[in-house]
Design a protein that fits this description.
By secondary structure, this protein is α/β, with parallel strands linked by helices. It is built from 13 helices and 19 strands. The two termini are 27 Å apart. The protein binds S-adenosyl-L-homocysteine, iron/sulfur cluster (SF4) and FE3-S4 cluster. Monomer. Its main location: cytoplasm.
Length: 484
Amino acid sequence: MFNEIDFTKIDLTGQPPADETKRQYYFMGKIRELLARESAVLGRPVTYCLQTFGCQMNEKQSEVVAGIMDEMGFDRKESEDADIVIYNTCTVRENANLKVYGRLGKLHNLKKHNPDMKIILFGCMMQEPHVVDKIRNDYPFVDLVFGTHNIFRFAELFYEMKNRDSQLVEIWEGTEQIVEELPTERNYSFKSGVNIMFGCNNFCSYCIVPYVRGRERSREPEAIVNEVKSLVADGVTEVMLLGQNVNSYGKTLEHPVTFAQLLQMVEAVPGLHRIRFMTSHPKDLSDELIEYMGKSKKVCHHLHLPMQSGSSRILKLMNRRYDKEKYLELVQKIRGAVPDISLTTDIIVGFPGETEEDFLETLDVVDKSNFDTAFTFIYSKRSGTPAAKMEDQVPEDVVKDRFDRLLSLVQEKGRMVSSRFQGTVQEVLVETESKEKGIFTGRTQYNLLVHFPGTSDMLGKYIQVRLDTCKGFYYLGTAVTEQE
Ligand code: SAH
Ligand code: SF4
Ligand code: F3S
């Protein structure tokens, strides 16, 4: 894990070291020197703005980039009128890309007023060759572009960017390297994501992730447990284990470990209170895991189990490797083992060839499964995926109509399912104070948000809260007693 870097011990006059972590510390030191001079000339700190699109893996990687920026001496600010603007991009759906292009237009204007401004793009979208071509041709004012595999080289790339006038692009096809011990700036002091694996091998036919994140690689369980231990030592009590398909964790390790075994090892860390994980693929959800969730003291009773579609025919075309019956059977099984489980899911509407009958099957699974929440997405064609070449793309108006019908069923069911907690007292981890002063927001183990009047000493603590009023996907409540 990361320890404070002592820059006085790094020789910045010699050649950069070969060891990857030390090498990056060396470049951080070099930039600190540059920055001290720059900041003296400006008579103020040099600022950066970092924005993250996409999923929790991107959030986690942004924490590393922020950690390196802070270590190098930059001051973070929220707005984009900063000296350096960094976007960590997502490409899972087309609108994620469009957002970035839209923002770049605005940044161009800002840069005209501040020619010393630097613009940096990285993350999933940059792993697509057509995107990089477009950035090269249409957005030459972007200073640095890198991908998902070489983030650990950020300090060195930054240094190179500072020493040239033209756009610097470095994209790797893939990597076996997992570089540990880089600085991280955590978004919360009391909860944290922990990567347990990288990449994805499933190739669902609509999905771009395996192309931009590379092949599945699991981290060694010891490295994961050590990271959790040092997070706990640093005040963290809730961890979210992250992977595109956590249920296949550990299969390719030299000494294979199952995900349930990993959970057991993480659970043994003293001082840790809650364990969450994302995402579970139904095809790999094991009885061992279901059983473990039932008896664990720390694993939260919340399972995110993306169904994508309720139609067995569409699921086959999606290459999901389970069918409607198998999915419903899993829901039954998990409810049998963990009766108070909160289930959430992802659903795609308008996959190529989806008929009204297929769509009705999706509504049927939603009706039968009693999800607490479902994230609904309109199918987005991703070039390079098998589904992009499929005929019968569903007309826009039909998709829109289905999407609206699905959303109203999801909301109606969600409201009904969430109301089961009405009047109960639940333990919540208090996460933030809302804009309305004195009102705090916490999360139950079921991942349900609760707003309640409180005091700032409650932040980061577990408090007993009575859930008074169900507002659909969240509650208004009252703190009952303070615990811990
Ligand atoms: N690894 C996770 C999902 C990661 S992407 C899993 O398999 O569950 C998050 C969600 O985005 C997916 O569950 C899917 O519902 C949605 N998604 C992925 N590709 C999409 C596409 N091309 N169009 C619309 N939604 C998509
Ligand atoms: Fe995409 Fe499927 Fe991998 Fe999830 S499991 S990231 S949906 S290919
Ligand atoms: Fe997006 Fe990449 Fe995550 S494409 S959803 S940020 S893995």
